Amino acid sequence: MSKRITIDPITRIEGHLRVDVEVDGGKVTKAWSSGQMWRGVELILLGRDPRDAWAITQRICGVCTTVHAITSVRAVENALNLEIPVNAQFIRNMIISAHAIHDHIVHFYHLSALDWVDVVSALKADPIKTAALAESLSDWPLNGRAVMTQTLEKLKTFVGSGQLGPFTNGYWGHPAMKLSPEVNLLAVTHYLQALEAQRHANKIVTILGSKSPHIQNVAVGGVSNPIATDSQSVLTVERLLALKPHMDALGEFIRKVYLVDIAAIGAFYAEWTKYGAGVMNYLSAPDFPMDSKGTQFLTPGGYIPGGDIAKYKPITAFGDAYLRDGVEESVKHAWYNYSKPGPLHPYKGETTPNYTDFQDDGKYSWLKAPTFYGERAQVGPLANVLCGVAAGHKPTITYATQVLDTASSLLGSKIPLAALHSTIGRHAARAVRCGVMQDVMQQNWQALIDNIGKGDVATFNKPTFPKGEIMGYGFHEAPRGLLSHWTVIRDGKIANYQCVVPSTWNAGPRDENDKIGPYEASLLDNPIADAEQPLEVLRTIHSFDPCLACAVHVVEDNKEVVQVKAL
Amino acid sequence: MRVVILGVGNILLTDEGVGVYAVNELAARYDLGDEVEVIDGGTSGMDCLDQVSGADHLLIADAMRSKQEPGTITRLAGDQIPAFFKTKISPHQVGISDMLGTLNFHGLMPKNIVLIGVEPKSFATAMELSPDIAARLPDVVAALVAELTALGITPRPKAA
User: Fold this and answer.
1) Exposed site from A169, A310, A401, A471, fewest CB < 10 Å?
2) Which of A308-312, A511-515, B41-45 has the lowest mean pLDDT?
3) Which among A448, A457, A477 has a CA at the least distance from the CA of A382?
4) Which pLDDT band holds residue A126 (cuts at 50, 70, 90)?
5) Residues 99-128 (B) with a CB less than 8 A from some CB of A
6) Domain containing B17 — which CATH number?
7) pLDDT tens digit string along A400-413?
8) pLDDT tier at A37, thresholds 50, 70, 90
9) Domain segments of chain A: what residues?
10) Around B111, how many Cα atoms within 13 Å sit in the side-chain half-sphere?
11) Which chain A residue has the Cα nearest residue B44?
12) H or E element at residue A452
C-alpha cells in the first residue's frame, strides 16, 4: 500500500517549498514539488527606472542578494547594448565568485552536511584515529590530534549541556546514517573550521561591495567603485592587496578540506551515486567575462541533452540567441492564468495569480515550469561542471578528477564521471566549482592589479536610455545555477520584468506536457527507510541547495500563503 | 563593548520590512558612536554571521506576528528569542535562528540579546510601510534608543 508524505516547509528562508511524495515498497513512486509563496517583485518594478532595478531585485531573496543585483544590471546593459569597462568586470567577477564560494561552503557544511553526518555518533570517535584518517587524506594543517581532541571535548560539553544548537534538527541515529564515529568527528571538526573559511569569503564581498549582505557598488554601466592609487575613500591598491590573504586562505580550505570532505562523504555513501539523477538535460551559463562585451568567459556553459556530454552545445556571449530563444514558462500546473494557451517566453511573461487548492493532477505550485526548447532542464553546479568537462575546460576537469580519484581510492574501486548524475554528485559538483572559482577570483584580482598598473582606472560607462522600446536579458551562473532576468524598457522605464531563477528550473511543477521537473524526477526511486523521518527526501532536495524565496511569485488576500518568515 | 543592531525583514513586502526601516531611521537620526554597528540584514541569516559574531549585545528589530493590534511593539529577551525564531519543522535551514545556533556552538554568541518586535498590518507587495505602521516608526526607534541608553550608550541626535 502506498503512503503519502508531505514535508512543508522544507526551506524556511523566506517563502517555502513543499514536497509531497508517495512511498510504496520502501521507495518513492510519485513526487510533487510546490512553491508555497508568491512573490510580486516583477510588479514592483513596472514603471521604474531600469537603473534602480538591481537594488530592488537583490531584496527578493535573503540568500542570493548579490546574484540578482549582477543579473539585473547585465539585463539592462544587454538591452542598451552597453559595454562596461574591464575593471568593472573584474570587480564584479571577484564579488560573484566570493559570494558563490560563501554560499557553497555554508550550504555544504552548515546546511546539508547534517543530512549525512551523525553528530552524536562523533562522541564515540577516537580522536587519534580520526587525525590519522584526516592526515592520510590531506595536508591541511588543522587535521591533527590536538584539533580532533578539542572538537570532541567541545562536542561533549555542548551535548552535555543539553543544547544541540544548530544540530537540534539533525537525524542522529537514523538508519540511513552510515559514517563511522571517526568520519563523523572529522566532519564536525571541519564544520567548525568552515565558519572561519566563510568569513574570508564574506570579507572579500564586503571590501569590494562596500557592504554586506546587500552590496552597494553595482551600477548599470559598471561599478561605482572609483579606483585611485592615493585616496582613502575609494578602491585603492592597498585595499586590493588586503584581499589577497583572504583569497589565499579561502583557496586553501577549498582545496585541502572541502574537496577532500566531499570525496570522503561520496565514497562512504557510494550507494547515493545511484539515486537522485532526475532530469538529465543540463543547462548552465558561461560566466566571469574578461572583456567589456561579455564574449570571453573564464568558465563555459551551455546545454547537454540526456546526460550525453558529446551533445554539448555552448552558450557563447551575453545576449546569446540560443539561450534567449529557447526559454519558455508554462503555468498549466502553476497557480497563474495566461491570457492565451501554451507556455510564454519571458519577454511576454505574465504574472496573473489564480490560486486553486493543491491539485495532484492540476495546479499545485506558485512556481512556473520553465523549459528549454520544450524540454525540462536541470541547472546548478552539476550542470556547470558537466558543461566544463564537455567543453574541455581544464580547471573543471582538474578539480573533478581530484574528487573522483580521492573518492575512488577510499572506496577501493573506480568511480566514473557518470556517478555525478546523482544526489551526492550535486554536492561534489558544488565543491568542484568552488575549486574553479577560487582560481577565477585570483585571476581577476591579478588582471585588475595589472590593468590599474597600465593606468586604466575606468569603472563606469554612463548609460543613456533611448525613446521607444528596447529589450534585453542578462544571465549569470549563480550558486544555484542559471539565473536570468528579462526586461522590456519603454521610454526609459521598465515595461516588463521577469526573473527566471534557478529554483524555478529545478523545483518547478509539471509542465505543459505534464512532464515532471528536476526535483520531482530526482526523488523517484529514492529509498525511504522510515516514513516518519524521510531523511532521504531531504538529502535529495538539499542536494539542489533549495531556496525558494525568489522562485516563487502572491495572493495578497491569502494571508496564510503570504506568511513569510519564521514567526 | 560592541553592540550590534540588526534590522531584519523584506522591504519589498510592506510591513515585513519594518525592522529594516527602523534601524535605518535610527542610524539616520542618531550618532551612535563607535561601539555600535547598525546592520540592514534584509532577509539574510548566515550572511550576518560575521558581523554579529562576538558582539556583547545584539539588538534585533523585526516584524512579529503575534495576533496583536497592528503596530503593537513587543520586547523579547533571553530564552524567548530562540523560541521566537523556531519554525514548525526545520530541516536545519539557515535563518536568524540558525545563525544564533551556529554562534552558540562556536562560543561566539552575544552575551545579551533583545528583540524589538512590531506587529505588522500589511504584507502587500510594496516598498513602503503601511501608514499605520509608518506612524509607529518613531516609537520603534525610541524603543531602540531606550535599549541603548540602558546599556550606558547615549545616542546623540544628529543636526537636522
Assistant:
1) A310
2) B41-45
3) A477
4) very high
5) 101-102, 104-106, 123-127
6) 3.40.50.1450
7) 999 999 999 999 99
8) low
9) 3-562
10) 6
11) A62
12) helix A423-453
pTM of the full structure: 0.90
pLDDT at B92 over 50: no
Cα end-to-end span (Å), chain B: 28
Does domain A3-562 fall into CATH 1.10.645.10?
yes
Q: What nine digits make up the cell of A32?
A: 510533487
* Res. A244: pLDDT tops 70: yes
Helices (H), ranges, B5-124: 18-29, 49-52, 80-85, 96-106
Least Cα distance to A151 among A196, A108, A198, A193 occurs for A193
* 8 Å CB contact of B123 and A44: no
| Domain around B89 | 3-157
Is ipTM strictly over 0.90? no
Q: Give the closest residue to A417 by CA, choosing from A266, A214, A532.
A: A266
First to last CA, chain A: 37
Beta pairing partners, B112 = B57
- By the 8 A CB rule, do A271 and A359 touch? no
Helix (H) and strand (E) counts for chain A? 17, 17
Cell matching residue B117: 518586535
Cross-chain residue pair A62–B47, CB shorter than 8 Å: yes
Residue with cell 537540534: A168
Q: What's the number of domains chain B is made of? A: 1
Instruction: Provide the CA A298 distance to its chain's centre, in angstroms.
Output: 18
> Which residues have C-beta within 8 Å of that of residue A357, sequence separation ≥ 6?
none
Report helix, strand or coil for B96: helix
- What kind and span of H or E run contains A464? none
Residue A475 pairs with which residues in a beta bridge? A484
Identity of the residue in B9, B63, B94 whose CB atom sits nearest the CB atom of A111? B94
Q: What residues contact B79, with CB distance under 8 A and at least 6 apart?
A: none
Q: Which three cell numbers stand for residue B101?
A: 545556533
Beta carbon pairs, A and B, within 8 Å:
140
Q: Does B11 touch chain A (CB under 8 A)?
A: yes
- At residue A486, φ and ψ (nearest 5 deg) are -125, 125
- Specify the range with the lowest mean pLDDT, choosing from A30-34, A185-189, B122-126: B122-126
DSSP assignment string, A23-65: EETTEEEEEEEEE-----HHHHHTTS-GGGHHHHHTTS-SS-H
- Of the spans A192-206, A232-246, A282-296, B93-107, which averages the highest pLDDT? A282-296
